[in-house]
Specification:
The protein is of the alpha/beta class. It has 2 domains: 139 residues, HUPs (Rossmann fold, 3-Layer(aba) Sandwich), CATH 3.40.50; 148 residues, Rossmann fold, CATH 3.40.50. It has 10 helices and 12 strands. The strands form 2 sheets. A 10-stranded mixed beta sheet has the order 3-2-1-4-5-12-9-6-7-8, sandwiched between helices. A two-stranded antiparallel ribbon has the order 10-11. Helix 1 links the parallel strand 1 and strand 2. Belongs to the universal stress protein A family. Pfam families: Usp. InterPro entries: Rossmann-like_a/b/a_fold, Universal_stress_UspA, UspA. This is Nucleotide-binding universal stress protein, UspA family.
Length: 290
């Protein structure tokens, strides 16, 4: 079974940007495109919103118009559409289950709205078992020009970032792009407060060689599977979110892993995914690894 690239649309400008990105990705990877819209019958006191059949017709017409624009640009692309009645989170996570990735549009920077934290998007990130890509309104093919890198964050042991690295290598291979693998690190608290420990660490060559080896070890099996992908390794001291954002300005795609955390007040995504979703200038892929 060939997994499709699935795009969730709702008629907004940002979802249309996500659909356009998903179509280009489907063409690059030689995969079909699936377009999904979730809707629920709603009434409104101030306007005539029509009955359920009328609303469904409006929705289907809008989705068909969005698909028409895509097929005009990519006439050879295989496209299917699904208009699903029900709440958005369940429909989108269900659609993601059999997809290579789910692509959603995202409103602007630094706002807790739209597909960002606290809304449909966060819930989808938490529940989806496949990668979810967020594309900002106004994204255009010009962001994918030659020279722009795929950036991926690596942390912990090799298995902790294996899924994110696999996704990033595949994206780089599909585009013929350079992959920049970033590992950020910080001093353990005991080192920061102990001059003697710092001296001994300096004499041993510091922690950076250890971090560099950890990154190289994590990349080694992917380098073997994707020998055509040029890789740049970057090890930098600092918070992972800040380091990734510092290189996202020249990236065409930023890839991060996520491990959802559930608590009494609801599910949360990690601070790195949270930060880059709010502030990165390029599309962001959030890849589950738990």
């Amino acid at each position: 079974m060939t997994r499709p690239i699935t795009a969730g649309v709702d008629g907004t400008g940002e979802s249309l940007a996500g659909l356009a990105w998903a179509a280009r990705e489907a063409v690059r990877r030689g995969r079909p495109l699936r377009v999904v819209h979730a809707w629920r019958f709603q009434t409104h006191e101030a306007v005539d919103a029509g009955d359920a059949a009328t609303q469904e017709r409006w929705v289907r017409d809008a989705v068909a118009e969005s698909v028409r624009r895509v097929t005009e640009r990519h006439p050879a692309l295989e496209v299917t559409t699904d208009v699903l009645e029900g709440e958005a989170v369940g429909a989108l996570t269900g659609a993601a289950a059999n997809a290579e990735m789910l692509v959603l549009g995202s409103r602007g920077h630094g706002r807790i709205m739209g597909f960002l934290v606290g809304s449909v998007g966060q819930q989808v990130i938490v529940e989806a078992r496949r990668p979810v890509v967020f594309v900002r309104a106004g994204d255009t093919p010009s962001g994918e020009v030659a020279g722009r890198e795929i950036v991926v964050g690596q942390q912990g042991e090799p298995e902790d970032s294996a899924a994110a690295l696999e996704f990033a290598f595949a994206a780089a291979a599909a585009r013929g792009a350079t992959l920049r693998a970033v590992r950020a690190w910080a001093l353990p608290p005991m080192f920061a407060y102990s001059p003697d420990t710092l001296r001994l660490m300096d004499e041993a060559g510091g922690l950076e060689p250890y971090e560099q080896k950890s990154l190289s070890d994590a990349l080694a099996p992917l380098r073997e599977r994707y020998p055509q992908v040029r890789v740049v390794e970057q090890v930098e001291m600092g918070s992972a979110g800040q380091v990734l954002l510092s290189v996202s300005g020249t990236a065409q795609l930023l890839v991060v892993g996520r491990r959802a955390r559930r608590s009494a007040v609801g599910a949360r995504i990690g601070s790195v995914a949270h930060g880059v979703l709010h502030h990165a200038d390029c599309p962001v892929a959030v890849v589950p690894h738990d």
